[in-house]
Structure formats: structure tokens, C-alpha cells
Design goal:
alpha+beta, five-stranded antiparallel sheet, rod-shaped
């Protein structure tokens, strides 16, 4: 206290210069500066104390406010998410917050008072040094991005000149740059897609329609609209008189539920040209799970639609032609049936006559005929019976378009051998090697299969007549699809395949 200072000066002659608070006569507490020293007589004895009081209350209040503000500023700079440090005019660290010390990899006490160029020589010659020096020289704020090798990270810097030197804010933007690079890559990829991409806001889904926020290059090529012409407007600007209203209602109902939807519509270009588009719209959620945007990926299917219409037209024409051909075929079948019945009637009568007279000759005049005569009559009667079977086959063939086949178990081997025998009896002088595979049993129409084999074997016999060693083979083999194929093969004249 002031009393102690004075008593000590009286007792020991100790001078004093102190700042302290006193209470005035009016009871006001003020700050004063007390100065005093001892006065001695010629013998050196202390005879009095002289001094003075200086009112420094305003000065102390100012200093207190300054310290308070400095403390608050330091607290603020410590609490911010950015790294921050202050440099004086000699480029020495004056203040370093915790985030800056952590980022720079040094303690604050190790940095304060040290020169920035000496502590971090890797800054020299970089954009960081240039920006620091130009900010001080020009007294202007500088902002820049810089890759800091020791941290292997990108930082964004904001440099502010101050009366005392330079203030530097910086933050790690490595992830931000990676995200920006990925976004740029995505935008580049989307912009170069052949399909149109259109992004709208998710709300409000009212009569005015959703607002477009993004379109890619393909959209511009497809519609003729530029980005600036459609941004902020509704996709309804692409619709026209031929756009199907029912399909639009279905799309709207799906979007109101936040569901994806696929559709095909007629849209119109800026020039008013209609085109078909196939698109899928999917909802995109925000970070909180709410509906943020709708993304539509569209593809021009005009050529496909035209092809489909052409196919439908061709199908209709084909169906009409089939109906015409069917009518012609039915008419031809009727004519064939009438012809077959006519042939049957006209041929059966003389055949029956031949067969009847042959039977009469055999029964009444057999004793007048030798064995060869009897054989000839038997062959005549067998020929008439075969001719009757052929007539029955023709009648069956005429009825194929209306009547089902008479399916039964048929021995192709037996039919082939019978036809072979008939051919040999007609031309006994020929030497033909005929090989018929055993066990050719099939399910089919016996009469019609007989007609088939009669024609095939008859042709094989006929067109191999000029060969001295003719060969005819009847058999079967497995096809590539597993089915059984039956064949008649010969070494005769054949066909030019």
C-alpha cells in the first residue's frame, strides 16, 4: 500500500515508483502513480519524504480495455476453424492460433518471435511469398490457392495487411478440390453423353411445372435450345399438340409420389419439329433424405418409332396379302378337289372294267392260258389296284386343307421293297443294286407316304437307267437338331444343287 511505501522510504530511504489504486475523499477508487524519495540533512539523516501522485486512471482503463479486447480477439482466433497467424513488419510470428500450429506442425511457443522465411524456407520463390510481399507493398488483400508439399495438401489463403504487419488466414481445401475435380469429371462426362440429361428442382410440383437447373450438350443438340433459354423454365415447353396427355398424367402421378418413372412421349424442338423421346426420371435425395431434384435421361427414338410404324404397315399389308392368298388357295383347293373327283370318276370306271374282265379271263379261261398269260393277267389286275390306291391318294391330298391326316404306324421299309419289286418286274433286264434299311417305322399317313416313296424311288429308278451299275439306297440318319431324316439316294443324273 502507499503507507508501506512511504514508511519504507522514511525508515530505509528507499525511493518508490508504483502504480496502485487509492480511494479519494469522495470515495472514488482511482489509479494513480505514486513517486517519492527521502530528503536527508547534511549528516545524512532522513528528515522528510517528498513525492507526487499522478492520476493515471484513464490510462489504466484504456490498457484494461485493450487487454480485454486482445484476450477476446485471441479467444476468437483460437475458436475459428481456419488456421491464422500474425506477422510483424520484420516477418516474425507475433501470434499463431492452435489450428495454424497444428497444420504447420510446430508449437506456438516455437514459432512466436521466429522469422517466417527462416522457419519455412520452402515458401521462398512460391506464390505464397509473392502474395505476402505484394499484400504488404500494395496494402491490398490477396487470395490464392497453394499446394504445401510437407503436408501434401492444398490450402486456400487470404492475406490481410495490418498496421503491425500481416494477417494470414488459411484452410485445407484438399477434399474440396478433389470433390470439385470429381464434379468437373462428372459434368464433362454428362456433357459428352449421346443421351440428353435434364435436371429439375423437385418442388413445387404445381401447374407451372418444375424448374430446369441443368441440361447437357446433347439436350442442346436434340432440342435446339441453349442452356440459358431453358434454365429456370419447365420441361413443359417441349410439349405440343401430339404429346399424349394420359402419359403426362401418369408421369406426374409418379413424381408426386417421388417414384422413378419410364415413358415415351412426343416432344418438340425449338423449331417446332416433333420427335419421339424415351426417357427415365429418377428422384435424387439431399443429405437429409428429402427430395431435392429429378434427373431425366432422354434418348431420341424417332427412327425406331418410324421403323415400328413401317413394320406395322408392312404387317397389315402382309396380312391382307395372306388373306388374298388364302382365298386363292381355298379356291384352288376346291378346283383341285373337283378335278380329283372328276379324275376318280373317269378313271375308276375303266379300271374297274379292266380289273373285272381280267378276273373273268382268269376264272373262265384259265385252262386256255399258260403260266405266262396268267402272270400277265395278275400283273394287269395288280396295276389296276395300284392305280386305285393312287386315285385314293389324290383324293386324300385334295382334302388335306380340310381333313386331318390319317396317322398310323407305317413301315417305310416294306413300302420301299414293294415299289422296288414293281420296278424290277417292269424292267427285269436292268441290273440295279437297291439297299433298303430295315426297321424304317414311322407314324404318318400310309397312302400319302406310299405316293411319296413311289415318286422318289420311281425317279431314282428312271434317272439312273443309263448307268451299268446303278445304286439306290433308302435309309435314315440323325440331323443336327436330333431329329431323324429319311432319304432316298441314288447315283443317277441327280440335280444341280
Amino acid at each position: 500500500t502507499i503507507r508501506e511505501l512511504i514508511e519504507n522510504c522514511v525508515s530505509n530511504g528507499t525511493p518508490f515508483d508504483a502504480e496502485l489504486q487509492i480511494i479519494t475523499g469522495k470515495g472514488r477508487r482511482v489509479w494513480v502513480r505514486a513517486l517519492g524519495e527521502a530528503v536527508r540533512d547534511p549528516s545524512g539523516a532522513i528528515v522528510q519524504v517528498q513525492g507526487a501522485f499522478q492520476d493515471i486512471d484513464l490510462q489504466k482503463q484504456t490498457e484494461l480495455r485493450a487487454r480485454t479486447m486482445a484476450g477476446r480477439l485471441a479467444t476468437t482466433l483460437e475458436s475459428i476453424s481456419d488456421a491464422f497467424f500474425l506477422l510483424d513488419h520484420d516477418w516474425n510470428f507475433v501470434f499463431v492460433n492452435g489450428r495454424a500450429a497444428q497444420t504447420l506442425g510446430s508449437g506456438r511457443d516455437d514459432l512466436v518471435g521466429k522469422n517466417v522465411w527462416q522457419e519455412f524456407p520452402q515458401i521462398l520463390g512460391t506464390v505464397a511469398e509473392q502474395s505476402y510481399r505484394s499484400a504488404v507493398a500494395e496494402q491490398q488483400t490477396k487470395s490464392f490457392e497453394w499446394f504445401y508439399p510437407p503436408s501434401e495438401a492444398w490450402f486456400e489463403f487470404h492475406v490481410y495487411p495490418t498496421d503491425e504487419g500481416l494477417g494470414v488466414y488459411f484452410q485445407d481445401i484438399t477434399q474440396k478440390r478433389k470433390a470439385a475435380d470429381q464434379l468437373l469429371l462428372l459434368q464433362t462426362a454428362v456433357s459428352h453423353l449421346n443421351d440428353s440429361v435434364l435436371i429439375t428442382e423437385a418442388a413445387p410440383l404445381d401447374e407451372s411445372g418444375l424448374k430446369i437447373v441443368f441440361v447437357n450438350d446433347a439436350f442442346e443438340r436434340q432440342t435446339g435450345y441453349q442452356r440459358d433459354e431453358v434454365r429456370g423454365k419447365s420441361p413443359r415447353m417441349l410439349q405440343g399438340p401430339e404429346t399424349e396427355r394420359a402419359e403426362l398424367d401418369r408421369i406426374r402421378a409418379a413424381l408426386q409420389k417421388g417414384e422413378p418413372v419410364r415413358a415415351e412421349l412426343i416432344n418438340y424442338t425449338k423449331a417446332g419439329v416433333a420427335y419421339w423421346v424415351e426417357f427415365e426420371i429418377v428422384p435424387i435425395a439431399d443429405a437429409q433424405g428429402g427430395l431435392a431434384h429429378f434427373v431425366a435421361v432422354e434418348r431420341d427414338i424417332t427412327e425406331r418409332k418410324r421403323a415400328e410404324e413401317k413394320i406395322l404397315q408392312l404387317n397389315a399389308e402382309l396380312e391382307e396379302r395372306v388373306q388374298q392368298r388364302t382365298a386363292q388357295l381355298e379356291s384352288a383347293n376346291k378346283e383341285l378337289e373337283a378335278f380329283s373327283y372328276s379324275v376318280s370318276h373317269d378313271l375308276r370306271s375303266p379300271l374297274n372294267t379292266i380289273n373285272g374282265f381280267g378276273q373273268m379271263l382268269l376264272s373262265r379261261h384259265a385252262d386256255q392260258l399258260d403260266d405266262k398269260g396268267k402272270h400277265c393277267l395278275s400283273r394287269i389286275r395288280a396295276g389296276t389296284r395300284q392305280m386305285g390306291d393312287l386315285i385314293d391318294g389324290l383324293l386324300s391330298l385334295a382334302k388335306l386343307s380340310r381333313d386331318p391326316l390319317q396317322l398310323e404306324r407305317v413301315d417305310l421299309s416294306g413300302i420301299a421293297r414293294r415299289i422296288e419289286q414293281e420296278c424290277r418286274e417292269q424292267e427285269p433286264e436292268r441290273q440295279v443294286h437297291v439297299q433298303v434299311q430295315d426297321g424304317l417305322l414311322v407314324r404318318g399317313d400310309a397312302v400319302l407316304l406310299s405316293v411319296v416313296l413311289q415318286n422318289l424311288l420311281g425317279n431314282a429308278w428312271k434317272y439312273s437307267a443309263r448307268l451299268e451299275a446303278a445304286r439306290i439306297e433308302v435309309g435314315s440318319q440323325a440331323a443336327a437338331d436330333g431329329r431323324t431324316v429319311y432319304f432316298v439316294r441314288d447315283n443317277g443324273a441327280g440335280f444341280d444343287m
